[in-house]
Amino acid sequence: FAAFHAKGSMKAMKQFLIGDLIPESVDHKDQKQIDFEKGYRELRTQLIKMGMFDSSKLFYLYKCSFNMCMWAVAVAMVAFSDSIAVHIASALLLGLFWQQCGWLAHDFLHHQ
Questions:
Q1: pLDDT of 78 strictly over 90
Q2: Which secondary-structure segment (H or E) carries 18?
Q3: What letter does residue 5 receive in the DSSP assignment?
Q4: Of 19, 67, 80, 98, which has the maximum CB count within 10 A?
Q5: How confident is the model at residue 16 (pLDDT cuts 50, 70, 90)?
Q6: Spatial separation of the C-alpha atoms in residues 56 and 105, rounded to whole Å
Q7: Is 16 helix (H, G, I), strand (E, B) or coil?
Q8: At what angle do helices 84-110 and 57-79 cross, to 10 degrees?
Q9: CB count, 10 Å around CB of 63?
Q10: φ, ψ for residue 53 (rounded to 5)?
């Protein structure tokens, strides 16, 4: 969880805590598993130090602008054409617009 979410995310999750793992479920880890988890924790620490988890406002500005351009083109295709093929292409572009908006909203929530 910590590898993919902002520092404050765990605070919001506390209200959903329904219990802890039973100790026996984590005590049986062999050295290979312990080393594997340690490697991921070290990798996360390095990525944080490199700034890889910092969001770029310029990127989000670009993505929002690009999404709005997709929407405008899809609307224009319908408004200025009577062709069924153009309307179908517009529907596909509008579907791509909504899909990109979904991922963009997901990314916004990671960096709120």
A1: yes
A2: none
A3: S
A4: 67
A5: confident
A6: 15
A7: helix
A8: 160
A9: 17
A10: -100, 0
Q: In this structure, what are the phi and psi dihedrals at residue 6, rounded to the nearest 5 degrees?
A: -65, 165
Neighbouring CB atoms inside 10 A of 66's CB total 13
- Which ranges constitute the DSSP H helices of the chain? 9-13, 23-27, 31-49, 57-79, 84-110
C-alpha closest to that of 42 among 3, 6, 8, 1? 3
pTM of the model: 0.64
CA distances from 91 to 70, 76, 104 (A): 11, 12, 20
In whole angstroms, how far apart are CA 21 and each of 3, 4, 18, 27, 90? 19, 21, 10, 10, 50
Helix (H) or strand (E) holding 112: none
Sequence letter at residue 28: H
Residue with tokens 């909504």: 98
